[in-house]
Amino acid sequence: MQDLVFVYGTLRRGQRNHYMLDTSCFLGLHVTKPCYTMLDLGTYPGVVPGGDCAITGELYRVTATTLATLDELEDYPHRYDRVVLATERGRAWIYLYRHRTGSERTITCGDWLR
Predict the structure, then answer these.
(1) Which pLDDT value is given to residue 1?
(2) Options 3.40.710.10, 3.40.50.2000, 3.10.490.10, 3.40.50.720; CATH of 2-106
(3) How far apart (Å, rounded) are the C-alpha atoms in residues 54 and 37?
(4) Alpha helices, DSSP H, located in 8-113
(5) Is 85 exposed, middle or buried (0-12, 13-18, 19+ CB in 10 A)?
(6) How many other C-beta atoms are found inside a 10 Å radius of the C-beta of residue 73?
(7) Which strands form 80-87's sheet, in the order they lie side by side?
(8) What is the pLDDT along the chain (114 residues), one digit of tens a residue?
(9) Residue ranges in the chain assigned as alpha helix (H)
(10) Catalytic annotation on 88?
């Protein structure tokens, strides 16, 4: 069985962790509804629910093995939650950051690569 995953940070094409998706099928770009906040966590971003930001990212079809690898990278379920996101390609997983302190800088454009 395969799942869809929406990635918005270091897993995107050209970024340092993209190699983890080398065997996955890239389905295209996706922009979420404007109901999130993107945080600058230094060397990677985090997205939290709430806010008025649309998040830009990429959709991939992944195997259960790849999903387990991504869960480990994202420290799910401790640092990130994995929740369902509606997309034009179907339901996809998105990792949402769990430890917002309020002192993080926000990325107002919702695109970590910009």
Answers:
(1) 67
(2) 3.10.490.10
(3) 8
(4) 64-73
(5) buried
(6) 15
(7) 25-31, 56-63, 2-7, 90-97, 80-87
(8) 689 999 999 999 999 999 999 999 999 999 999 999 999 999 999 999 999 999 999 999 999 999 999 999 999 999 999 999 999 999 999 999 998 888 899 999 999 998
(9) 64-73
(10) no
CA distance 94 to 68: 14
SS3 24: coil
Sign of CA dihedral 57, 100, 41, 25: negative
Helices (H) and strands (E) in the chain, counts: 1, 8
pLDDT at 100: 86
| Candidate list 72, 74, 88, 104, residue with the active-site label | 74
Q: Which amino acid is at 75?
A: D
